[in-house]
Amino acid sequence: MSKNIIICGVGGQGTVLAAKVLSQAAISNGERVLSAETIGMAQRGGSVVSHIRIGQDVFSPLVPQGQADVLIAFEAAEAVRNIEFLKQGGSVIVNKKVVQPVTASLSGKTFDENEMICYLQKVAGNVIAVDTDQACRDLGSSKVVNMVLLGAASKSGLISKEELKAALKLLVKPEFYELNVKAVDYV
Fold first, then answer.
1. Other CB atoms closer than 10 Å to residue 40's CB: what's the count?
2. pLDDT, tens digit, for every residue of 49-64?
3. How far is CA 174 from CA 15, 53, 171, 181, in A?
4. Cβ of 125: how many Cβ atoms within 10 Å?
5. Burial of residue 27 (number of CB atoms within 10 Å: 0-12, 13-18, 19+)
6. Rounded Cα gap, residues 183 and 20, in angstroms
7. Residue 158: pLDDT band with limits 50, 70, 90
8. In angstroms, rounded to a whole number, what is the distance separating the alpha carbons of residues 112 and 96?
9. For the chain, what is the largest distance between any 2 Cα atoms, rounded to a whole number of angstroms?
10. Which of 24, 140, 176, 185 makes an SS bond possible with 167, Cβ 3.0 to 4.6 Å?
11. Cβ neighbours around 114 below 10 Å, total
């Protein structure tokens, strides 16, 4: 049985590391993993999307529209932009925070996170909205949004927290391991 995951956000939020941690956890379990990332202008705050496909019956790294089991969004507007990837009955794990795009700032408009979360709940149904700003304050670091969201994703049955922690041990510097483990356990 395959698993299809979309991770989306804005450059600098840690989406690439989150994709690597999920992939490593699956590989450590003997699963076949294919992944692809579109990062382009991400270095300048642009959209980042990672596709992760896990399973022996997976032959392409790109998740087809309407086939993602889980959409992990580091930013609410990116969740809305990528919702077409989610399959019916899939889960959305979303950061409540909205990063206002430059175009919205220039036009005097703003994106409302509550409006976006309500839209996602209407469209997807199974939505876990996480206040990562509060999590970062509680954990003492703004660099753990990715692991907080992966920890929340474990509630969807995607992966266990123990598998995430084992992958972290292989991928992060030892001095950051404990902080990342606390972030995984936060939600």
1. 12
2. 999 999 999 999 999 9
3. 20, 28, 9, 11
4. 13
5. middle
6. 16
7. confident
8. 10
9. 50
10. 24
11. 11
